[in-house]
Amino acid sequence: MVEIGGNPLTETWLRFQDLVQEWKAQSRAISSITEEVMCPAYQKIIGMGERAVPFLLQQLRDEGSEPDQWFWALSAITRVNPVNDADRGDYASMARAWLEWGKNEGHVW
């Protein structure tokens, strides 16, 4: 878990969590991934930039075998995509690829 006690990370973490909840409410009835990622809250998460990467990775880890669609945000922010073509569409495998990438890049969550 991201350590947030008494440092500037607290505000960013809380803002991120608020946006996650807002996005889940906004996208609840949407079935299109493209429409989901165009929701204002999701776009605001992308707008957080590199600060959001450890939080996004933590979300993927915490969501386990049924992760939400955080891959678009991670790719938009980092400009990389560590997911193998064979794993596209398999969210659990995609999450594992991103978590491995995060570990290799030194992101702490």
* Shape annotation: globular
The rounded distance between the terminal residues' Cα atoms is: 5 Å
Fraction of residues in helix: 55-70%
Poorly predicted residue ranges: none
Main β sheet profile: none
Instruction: Please tell me how large the radius of gyration is.
Output: 13 Å
Structural class: mainly alpha
The quaternary organization reads as single chain
H-E string: HHHHHH
Say how many strands there are.
0
Strand fraction equals under 5%
Q: Quick check: average pLDDT?
A: 91
Number of helix segments? 6
Please tell me about this protein's structure:
Helices cover 60% and strands 0% of the residues. The chain is built from six helices and no strands. It has helices at residues 9-27, 33-37, 40-47, 53-63, 71-78, 91-104. Helix 4 (53-63) packs across helix 6 (91-104). The radius of gyration is 13 Å and the shape is globular. The model has no long low-confidence stretch (mean pLDDT 91).
